[in-house]
Design brief:
Number of strands: 12
Helix content: 10-25%
Distance between the termini: 19 Å
Strand order of the largest sheet: 1-8-3-6-2-7-4-5
Number of helices: 3
Strand content: 25-35%
Length: 208
């Protein structure tokens, strides 16, 4: 998945009080780590932009930024925490749209931590995500492993979808010996919920 790729550069950004932070360090996101990725996917699926905060040129275990706030679920104070591990930030301007999604997600996944900043802070932003990605899996015999990780994160798969808007199609890619395999179907979607497209590689898509 694109979310797992390390960024090449980052740009500085200022976030106002009321911005939401999804921690990705074990201080606050140990048990809920995988489901935190699922929350990011759900926010994107419902049209809420998410910023990936990674300090440019940081050293091992160095914080990406420091901020204070409160835990959304418990109301506990967060005093000057150094967020590490590439936390996700929802700008204060999008917080009103994000909070109902966050609260619904936490109701089903109480281990996922989300913090609300009570003062402004600055951070390098490696990427701003604005849409849930189309997901592809190579049918190389290990696709069940990838599916289990997605299910553990709560990200829709061919056999596990969520209510609401139709999720992006998920493709199983079988490499062809005759041509370089594609990473998506020919059109990026299938004409029926389960269809086979004969292209440079054989692609069975679901969820369209």
């Amino acid at each position: 998945m694109a979310l797992a790729l390390a960024p090449l550069s980052a740009s500085a950004a200022d976030f106002a009080a009321g911005s939401l932070v999804i921690p990705m360090d074990t201080d606050y996101q140990d048990l809920g780590m995988l489901r935190a990725y699922g929350l990011v996917y759900e926010l994107l699926r419902q049209g809420v932009p998410v910023h990936w905060a990674i300090k440019a040129g940081k050293g091992p275990a160095e914080a990406d930024f420091t901020a204070s706030g409160t835990d959304v679920a418990s109301g506990a104070a967060i005093d000057g925490h150094g967020y590490r591990g590439g936390p996700w930030v929802i700008d204060a301007a999008d917080a009103a749209s994000a909070l109902p999604i966050v609260e619904a997600w936490q109701q089903d996944n109480p281990d996922v931590a989300v913090h609300e900043a009570n003062e402004g802070f600055s951070s390098d932003v490696a990427a701003t995500l604005v849409v849930a990605p189309t997901i592809a899996m190579m049918a190389d015999g290990n696709q069940k492993i990838a599916r289990k990780y997605m299910m553990a994160a709560g990200i829709p798969t061919p056999s596990a979808t969520t209510a609401g808007p139709t999720p992006a199609p998920t493709c199983w890619i079988r490499p062809s010996s005759r041509a370089r395999p594609r990473t998506t179907c020919a059109t990026g979607r299938c004409s029926t919920p389960r269809a086979t497209q004969s292209t440079a590689s054989s692609c069975r898509c679901t969820g369209a």
